[in-house]
Design a protein that fits this description.
Order of helices and strands: HHHHHHH
Radius of gyration: 21 Å
Structural class: mainly alpha
Largest sheet: none
Shape: extended
Length: 148
């Protein structure tokens, strides 16, 4: 387990390095394939010519990068100190936070498909948790709830 030998900062560095390598491979694939125009309007941002961002935008991107890096370090530390299944449970709260922040900051109302997808993911997670508890001999989720 890498968390036994490495600090959370090193773990976050490795994770960012993996993301960088992945992005470089995708960029190389686009370049080698000669894709210089979008095959679909939603992909236009991937292949348009590079333009330096304005200073305010660059500062915002830097702040986002700093916050994301700090979050990655904190998440790595959580995985080092606690069982992975406990930490992963808190990661799933993103299903709730993402639509909430989208609504608060962008006035974006979640579509029914978003709600259905979130319900499917939450249901599958609860099903998997219940199944793993049954295999381990621990009480199932329904049996641990006290309705009184």
């Amino acid at each position: 387990k890498i968390g036994d030998t490495e600090s959370s900062t090193v773990m976050a560095f490795y994770q960012n390095g993996a993301y960088l390598v992945g992005a470089a491979l995708v960029a190389a694939l686009f370049w080698l394939a000669g894709i210089d125009h979008a095959v679909h309007p939603s992909l236009e941002f991937l292949v348009r010519p590079w333009v330096w961002p304005a200073t305010p935008d660059l500062l915002k991107m830097g702040a986002c990068g700093f916050v994301a890096s700090a979050g990655m370090i904190l998440l790595s530390q959580a995985y080092r100190l606690a069982p992975a299944n406990g930490v992963a449970t808190f990661e799933y709260t993103g299903i709730i936070w993402s639509p909430l922040w989208g609504f608060l900051f962008f006035a974006e109302v979640p579509r029914p498909a978003t709600a259905a997808g979130a319900a499917l993911i939450i249901g599958a997670g609860l099903f998997a948790l219940n199944a793993s508890r049954r295999r381990s001999g621990a009480p199932a989720i329904a049996a641990t709830c006290d309705p009184a």
